[in-house]
Specification:
15 strands; alpha/beta; globular; 2 domains; Enolase-like, domain 1; four-stranded antiparallel beta sheet; TIM Barrel; single chain; 13 helices
């Protein structure tokens, strides 16, 4: 059995990948979102020459082969592109074996607790508190994550005093028994992060995500050492050597690899294993309701150091609507791992027809 063709269906936001074998089997995956049309070009130009003709069951070999062959181009776009291939191959393998990816990885199909993830800073603390309280009542959420600081904000809040206002406002609205997490998106220097972290500890915040610019792992390590609140991070990191350094120095308490940013399930499993051996929790990043959340559900159902919940965006993102079915839904604060072979979902053919199509195949 050999990989006969690799197809992409791309928009600016999303790129779905379909791999077909010379014997007719197929699997669907997805590259990382955002500028996905550029990722599709990278995939066909730099990835497919290393993948076509290979045995689709040798997923680790294929992914490692690509990363090694394209060593002059390390980083985001190569990893985003190979992630589309990797996830399509895992879907194909599941269909070959008649098992879900979660089951292939040794896991069990079961509901997973969701934390409602807010992506907004342009919302008042009162309005944020009210919408989270409403989601508790309508969907049964028992955990939320909100945004503080500003994205790479250099100690500058979205507006002065917002962080200090939103934490007590939201905590009061959702109550003491609901888990509250915060994300600073690389917003602080170590000194400011420690100052804010001590305030977060007073309000029983469950984790403090990406307190410092993510490349500055030494800065993050200083914050981790100074605070009792668990520090989380890693969503942006695509280099396994950087992950080894982060984990060895315990720069964070909770690792957050993103399946699509990092390059797929195979590479994410390596980070999960490294963190497990170090006694660290793995709570992957999954900040939108594209296929990345499906991939992450299967992963969480299988790894032995999985965090207690999955990130589940509460934002309206039209570009993820009707991408696959059945759609993911939170009920009583829980979301099901899709059942069935592979990823357990079907890509919407109508969505594919509207996307820009490209194919690479063996002659």
């Amino acid at each position: 059995m050999r990989i006969q063709s690799i197809e992409t269906f791309a928009t600016k936001e999303l790129c779905i990948v379909r791999i077909r074998t010379n014997t007719g089997e197929e699997g669907f995956g997805q590259t990382a979102p955002y500028h996905a049309d550029i990722t599709a070009k990278v995939l066909h130009q730099q990835i497919t020459p290393h993948v076509l003709g290979e045995d689709p069951r040798d997923i680790d070999y294929i992914v490692d082969k690509v990363i090694t062959a394209e060593h002059k181009f390390p980083g985001s776009y190569i990893c985003r592109a190979i992630g589309g291939v990797d996830t399509a191959l895992w879907d194909l393998r599941g269909k070959l074996e008649g098992k879900s990816v979660c089951e292939i990885l040794g896991g069990t199909i079961q509901p997973i607790m969701a934390y409602g993830s807010s992506m907004r800073r342009d919302i008042s603390p009162v309005d944020e508190a009210n919408r989270l309280k409403g989601l508790m009542e309508s969907k049964g959420y028992k955990a939320f994550k909100i945004r503080i600081a500003n994205n790479f904000g250099n100690n500058i809040d979205y507006y002065p005093g917002r962080t200090e206002e939103i934490i007590p406002t939201v905590r009061d609205a959702i109550g003491e028994n609901t888990i509250l997490l915060v994300d600073a998106n690389s917003g602080y220097t170590p000194e400011k992060a420690i100052e804010v972290g001590k305030m977060l500890e007073e309000y029983n915040v469950g984790h403090f995500e990406e307190p410092c610019p993510y490349p500055e792992i030494e800065w993050t390590s200083l914050v981790t050492s100074a605070l009792n609140i668990p520090i989380a991070g890693g969503e942006q990191d695509t280099c396994l050597s950087q992950w080894k350094r982060m984990i060895h120095m315990r720069a964070v308490d909770i690792v957050q690899p993103d399946v699509c940013y990092l390059g797929g399930i195979s590479r994410t499993l390596k980070v999960a294993k490294l963190s497990s051996e170090a006694g660290l929790i793995c709570t992957p990043h999954a900040a939108n309701l594209s296929m990345v959340t499906v991939f992450t559900l299967h992963l969480l159902g299988a790894i032995d150091n999985a965090g207690p919940y999955i990130e589940f965006s509460i934002e309206d993102t039209p570009w993820t609507n009707d991408l696959f079915y059945p759609a993911l839904e939170v009920r009583d604060g829980m979301v099901d791992i899709p059942k069935g072979p592979g990823w357990g979902v079907e890509i919407n053919e109508d969505w594919l027809k509207k996307a820009n199509y490209q194919i690479s195949k063996l002659n």
